[in-house]
Amino acid sequence: QANKLKRHMLTHTGEKPHVCKLCHKVFTQASNLKQHMLTHIGEKPHVCKICQKGFTTMSSLKQHMLTHTGEKPHVCKICQKGFTHANTLKQHMLTHTGEKPHVCKICQKGFTRMGTLKQHMLTHTGEKPHACDICSKRFAHSSHMKAHRLTHQGDSTQNTMKKPHECKLCQKGFTSSSSLKTYMLIHTGEKPHGCTVCQKRFTQLGQLKAHMLTHT
Fold first, then answer.
1. Rounded to an integer, what distance in angstroms lies between the CA atom of residue 179 and that of residue 148?
2. 204, 167, 202, 207: which is closest to 187 by C-alpha?
3. Phi, psi dihedrals of residue 178, rounded to the nearest 5°
4. In angstroms, rounded to a whole number, what is the distance separating the alpha carbons of residues 69 and 162?
5. How far from 60 is each of 33, 38, 54, 154, 174, CA to CA, in Å?
6. By the 8 A CB rule, do 152 and 133 touch?
């Protein structure tokens, strides 16, 4: 009982006495450090019975199982959209608040997602991590590499059926970059088209035109 009380008190003091010797990350409880060490040695003892994918913690496995059941327990209170993971819901909420917490240190441009910021940073560094497996040509973005990859396919008819411009958030494909750009507004929540009569705003120009008919 004394040990349980001692561990509990750490949650109030914020003290984290258990330190990882490899990366120096600190933990409140020894059990948490033990779980963390699995990430260094690569051990994944918790295995999904459906697809055999392994995880370092039971909580990670439970989250993964939701992808098989289709359950989305994390619901947005504003638009009622459901999400499998709490972190995904947290990211989604930024589309409602307009908050962009991930800021580029070079040009100060803000982004709602860390992944988007990382992709943006490539424009400053000039890094091209995505290579074509046929000609080894390199690209900053995976979507650009995929679009290039299609040029190696001999059947031009098949190429016209492809949708090389892919949304990085939901993987939906589009035939043109302009169509993808318009679609991305659904994820960002941006509404660039404003009504000059009532100031109501819309994601797409077609929506605005339809709305304007209500004023006439």
1. 18
2. 167
3. -65, -40
4. 31
5. 16, 13, 9, 43, 33
6. no
